[in-house]
Structures are given as structure tokens and as C-alpha cells.
Amino acid sequence: xxxxxxxxxxxxxxxxxxxxxxxxxxxxxxxxxxxxxxxxxxxxxxxxxxxxxxxxxxxxxxxxxxxxxxxxxxxxxxxxxxxxxxxxxxxxxxxxxxxxxxxxxxxxxxxxxxxxxxxxxxxxxxxxxxxxxxxxxxxxxxxxxxxxxxxxxxxxxxxxxxxxxxxxxxxxxxxxxxxxxxxxxxxxxxxxxxxxxxxxxxxxxxxxxxxxxxxxxxxxxxxxxxxxxxxxxxxxxxxxxxxxxxxxxxxxxxxxxxxxxxxxxxxxxxxxxxxxxxxxxxxxxxxxxxxxxxxxxxxxxxxxxxxxxxxxxxxxxxxxxxxxxxxxxxxxxxxxxxxxxxxxxxxxxxxxxxxxxxxxxxxxxxxxxxxxxxxxxxxxxxxxxxxxxxxxxxxxxxx
Length: 399
Known about the structure:
Elements (H helix, E strand, L loop, with lengths): L1 H23 L5 H18 L2 H7 L3 H13 L1 H27 L7 H6 L2 H27 L3 E9 L10 E5 L10 H14 L3 E4 L8 H8 L11 E3 L5 H4 L1 H10 L8 E7 L2 E7 L13 H12 L10 E4 L8 H8 L2 E6 L11 H4 L8 E5 L2 E5 L17 E9 L1
Parallel strand pairs: 1-11, 2-3, 3-4, 6-7, 7-8, 8-10
Antiparallel strand pairs: 2-11, 5-6, 9-10
């Protein structure tokens, strides 16, 4: 909802600028202004058309031919709003400088002859063209998911797990813009990498299992020697987390719902804990202490992780600090997260970094190594600008 609020605010900036331009335009230019304003207002309305479809339509797949193009228009609105806002600032500076020089006031027809209005018209048209071009580039970028390789070294890692490879899939976001074919492409890429373990770190969809379960069925074809482990993201809670947890478990994609398991290789083992997203409410509120306790009860390993190598799957990187830095206290060595999308659409990454400790990549917080993925999919607009989608392959090394 926060992202939608930002989009609405940017659309409001655009609307105010259009209203200002329409009122101030000389009568001679009003027909052009009406056409331009009407076009951009329709663009704003269309760009938000995907949101109710994504929430209300049962057969999302059947409406994607309409919702995907509508969602893709949203970045056009964002960049047009930013561009016209900048143009408004330039216009204000020009007007102020003109007033300070006490230059004689020009009548509308004389003003037109100076070329100022022609300049504003040309720049406004150019802004829309550039916004569309950037969005077109971002649309193509969003549909080309990269496999990225990261190596993390730990002295606590058992020698038997040296070279262990984990595929981190997060933020697939099937919904208005992305569907089953996109998910199948992800599965093909991951299987080709032959990881030892596959992690689904939340935000797989933007709707309910009834709406979008069919789009995620290709995930059941993921293959790895140590299988697939999943946890919830905030978007699972936008509908109902329980049905998604049940759906994943039913399709043999086990969810670590504030719980854990151990991976055994030879005579060595490592722990994997999973907690729900921080927006979860009981009985799905995140509880790392409960996960550690359940791991102890099931496998007899120390609750505090003493002498163990521990991986935590938590959707948001900031969850490393949850419950008074409990991750560090319970001996977590590596946290796998997503959520940020790397900002998804420039310049939103500057807002993301105001909330999260990491945008993407590898960071160490309170002694815990946190790998944050930009995510494979896109929320809302199937567009990414300055934040290419990725599936990290993390190789664990002992050293």
C-alpha cells in the first residue's frame, strides 16, 4: 500500500501540473492543451486499472492481457510526473528571474512569439516520449532474470558442506503482470544451475491460491538434492497466509513456519531456520525463538546454536535485527532475504534504503551475513529500471 500511495502522489503532481498548464495557457493554445491534458489524464487512469483487477478478479490469468499493459503504464506516469514537476520548477525559476529583472510584462501572443510556450510544449512531449522509452526498456529488463553468483566464507561451516550451493528465489509476484510462463522460465534457469538447496523466500504471488495457484505450479518441478524450503513474505499476508502455507505444503514445497530443519551430509549437519514475515499476525507472527525451540525439540540441537552452522530464511533483511538482535544471539551465521526488489523502478531505491538496512548483495549486520536478493519478479508493473531481476546462487565456503 505504501508503494501505491507514492504512485498516487506522483500522479497528483502530474494532475496539478496539467491543471496549471491548462488554466494558464493562452486561448490560442487551449485546444492543444485540452488534447494533451486528456491524453495524460487517461494515461493516469489506465495505469491504475491493474490494481482492482489484481484484487477482485478470480481468473487473473484470463485478464492478464489487459492488466499487464495497464500495470506497465504506471512507470510512464511516474516518469512523466517527475519530468513535468522538474519542468515546473524550471518554469518557476525562469518566471522569478524574469520578475526580478523587471522586464516588461508580455501579453500572451507576445509570450508565444518568444518561443517559451513552444519550448514548454516540446519539452512536455519529449518527457512523455522518454518516459515511454524508459518504461519499454524496463519491461524488457523485467522479463530477463539474471543468475548471479555469490560466495560466502565461514569458519564455522563444516568441511563436508564446503562448496554447498543455495539458489535463492524471492519476490516472484505472479499477478497482474507475470504468470505461469515466467515462473516456468525461473524453474528452468534454477534447475540448470543444479543447486544443492533451493530457498523460496516469500512474496511468490499477489493474490490468493484460488486466483494464482495455477501460475505457481511450475515450482513443483524444482529439483535439488536437499529439496526446497519456503517461508512467507508480506504479500502472502495481503490475502491470507494460512491458505498459502497450506498450498505450498500440499505441493511439497515445505514452509518453515517459525520452525526449522537440519541438512545432513556425511557425518556433519547444518541448521536451517525459517520465520514468517514481520507483518504476520498470530498464529503467523514471526518468532525466531520459537523456531529455535522447535528445532531443538525435533532434533535435539542446542537452542542457542552453540557449535552449529545456522541459516535463517527471513523475507526482509531488517529481520536480522528482530526481537532484540535474536538472530545473532541464536548463532545464525547466514540470513537469506529478498523483499527490496533493489528498488525495482529508479529512483525508488532511495526510499527502500530508508526502511531496509540493505538494498541487495551481501552485508554483515551484528555478526550475521545477510544476502539480499533483488528478487526474480516485479510487483505491479512488470517493469524494472536500474534494478535487474536476479536469482542468486550462493556458494558456501569454509575458511
